[in-house]
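User: I'm writing a tutorial on reading structure tokens. Could you give me a worked example: one chain, its sequence, then its tokens, then a sentence or two explaining what the tokens reveal?
Assistant: Sure. Here is the example chain.
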Amino acid sequence: MGTTQLESVPEPKYWQLKTVLTQALDSEFSVGEILPNERDLAARFGVARATLRQALEQLELEGRLQRRRGVGTTVAPPRMGVAVGFEQHTWPGTADDAWQPVDCTVATPPAAVADLLETGRNEPVHTLRRSRMTHGQPVAAELLYIPDASVPGLSAIGTLPGAARARTVLRELQHLELEGHSQTVELGSAGAEDARELDRLPGAPVLVVTTRYHADGLTAAVSVATYRADTCRLTFGATGGVEIHHDPERHAS
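And here are its predicted structure tokens:
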């Protein structure tokens, strides 16, 4: 079988424009400054607006720009440090947990979550919504799914307000002996509800961290945490944990 010589593929036009825009951001704009509108930018650089949008989307994905409702496109601040991994095995809701409970309902989880929990796809579970802030800025939203079998001691929590109900479920979960956890990280896009909580536009790039908590040989809970991709840089350490580190300098791509 013969070999095929791959031809050199030129960079697409939007990628060339991204490089030019990066240089302009470094030399002409400051953090938080609002960029001109798409029509003016496209005219300045002599490109179609579709090409400009592709370049802006790439810069947003790389954390150089932010799109905000009612504001427009602004130059993003440096990425902030947010710990995601676990130095030791702990349940959600412990004293040093950075997440704040928002609400708790009983609802049927998505099919993929039900499969991870190994419950029936139509079986309702406790669904906790939590949020995470860093330096006064929303950086993540979480849905934590806990089946009844993991928190059998609950009774009459339906009368509690949402955040109090969430804290009650978390306290009951901690009665189990945690055996460990496993995590996956993947790139996604913000749905309407997550975008609203994270102060992003729907479709903005996000990092989805899914954590399975194990007890008694089973999956006792599943967390699906959505992080703003424009604030995060992930590294994997020797402990297997995941961390988001502060990016002290901006480097041109």
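What the tokens reveal: The two ends are 38 Å apart (CA to CA). Residues 13-75 form a domain with the Arc Repressor Mutant, subunit A fold (CATH 1.10.10.10).
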